[in-house]
Fold this sequence. Notes:
By secondary structure, the chain is an alpha+beta fold. It is globular. A hairpin with a 4-residue loop joins strand 8 and strand 9. The protein has helices at 2-51, 53-74, 115-135, 211-219; strands at 85-94, 97-106, 139-148, 151-157, 179-185, 193-194, 207-208, 232-237, 242-246, 249-253, 258-262. The chain has a domain at 82-262.
Amino acid sequence: MQNDNTVMQNVFLFFTRTFEFILNKCGITLLILYSTMVEWCKTLIRSVYNNYPDIRKTIDMLSYGILYMESVYFNHRIEPIENDWISASVLKNQWNENVFSESFTKILLDGSYSDHVIGTTFDDYCKTAQNTIKTTPSISEIMTTLKYNNQYITYSCFPDKTDKAKLIRFPIQPSKVSFLSIEYVHPAMSQKIVMDIHNDYYMSNNHLLTPLFVKRFLEYQSQSYYFDMDYELNLMDSDLNLFSLNSKQYILLNNEGYTIETTTETR
């Protein structure tokens, strides 16, 4: 009887292992087939999107429509659907509140614009901002933002700081630095807000994390927040350095890294 049981156990073990082997083989084959199909679909979709302007426009509009409905539901701002534009953002102290406003000008790339013309236009916007902030005491900061060729160019001016904007030259050089972590912290808030800044902002000579830059970021995300000049930013850079910024400090990017600047003239 013991020998019969041993034989039955061996037979059962043989069929069990055979079944498991077949399942593993089928599973690996199905996984490879699935991965191949996914990559094929991605390639096909990318090809159709890039080669058929009408389809690309339809997909872009549908995607933007979803983002727009999300912005309405969560009550936050959304950038224009166009890829190329200049914006003027203003942070004004009004009735002891920091009031944010923003206007956009679309760039129509119909052949009449060149890199030089767009750079000159951005420079004109920055000069206008500098003149405006010196004659309007209630404005604490004006930020000019250019989105062009999927890159963001930012320049901020302050009433107590003389800082001429540099005429931008294309192509814009990306900075080698990036920040692995940025957290917005405020004494009136129990939770931090993670500021995930898109890689397209890490361009040489960009002004990042000024008070208006921070306020604008908060306006474009869905979490509730409290904003005044008592906030603090906790950062970790790409070299794992930890440091904090207050509302009187911001980041100026360069080709190799960054410097910490102040919103007023240093004596």
